[in-house]
Amino acid sequence: MRVLGFLGSPHVNGKSAKLLKKALEGAASAGAEVKEFDLIKMNIKYCSGCGVCFTTKPELRIGKCSLKDDAPGIFEEYIEADGYIYASPVYDVFVPALMKTFLERKIMLTYRPKELSGKLPESRGPAMFQKKASIIVTGNCIDEYREVMGDPCFEAYEGHLMIEQIETVDKMYCGGVEILTEEEWNKKFDEAFQMGVRIVQEIEKSRQ
Q: Which residues contact 8 (CB under 8 A, 6 or more apart)?
């Protein structure tokens, strides 16, 4: 079993990064092979909106894109994985541009024939809900503002996961990151660790 982590923060040692690492540690402790992608270190170009990748070559697992960057290689590993943990801060009540750029390029994993224009594209390799995902969002506004700060970010991720037929296991909003005490942080790290354990358990359950 393989679980991939995607960090959508420019700070590879920041709050989101530390929580993601704990979640991946939890997944590894439950028997998964894990790998982290720090998106800030990757060459991922902006989608040009040409539509070629999701309207041609339905036989491919990943649609062809004219942009030359790291995205196709990342997606080769993505489609072979069993679970995913996304982590990012909240920037202006949404996921950071870094993560949004990555999510937009996931259109390469879908297909829609031109005659069905106006319909949602479908996954080129639907997971049939045997693959799972969990989401970590950090914000400087306290947990009371989860609905305003966290929910729009969760929706951004889950829109893609719905098309891919991937079930969300956990959604963690960690608010007030600038004022949490060491004790509170330790509780958050434990929560993230348990998220990693649970995603492995849920993947295993779905395949029994």
A: 16, 39, 86, 87, 88, 89, 95, 96, 98, 99, 102
Between CA 153 and CA 190 the distance in angstroms is 22
Q: What is the pTM of this model?
A: 0.96
Burial 22-47 (b: 16+ CB within 10 A, else e): bbbbbbeebebebebbbbeebebeeb
Q: Give the Cα separation of 95 and 154 in Å (integer).
A: 9
CB-CB contact of 30 with 109 (8 Å): no
User: Apex CA 109: angle with CA 105 and CA 110, to 5°?
Assistant: 105
What would the pLDDT profile of 23-58 be if each residue is shown by its tens digit? 999 999 999 999 999 999 999 999 999 999 999 999
Tell me the per-residue pLDDT of 112-134, one tens digit each, with 9 for 90 and over: 998 999 999 999 999 999 999 99
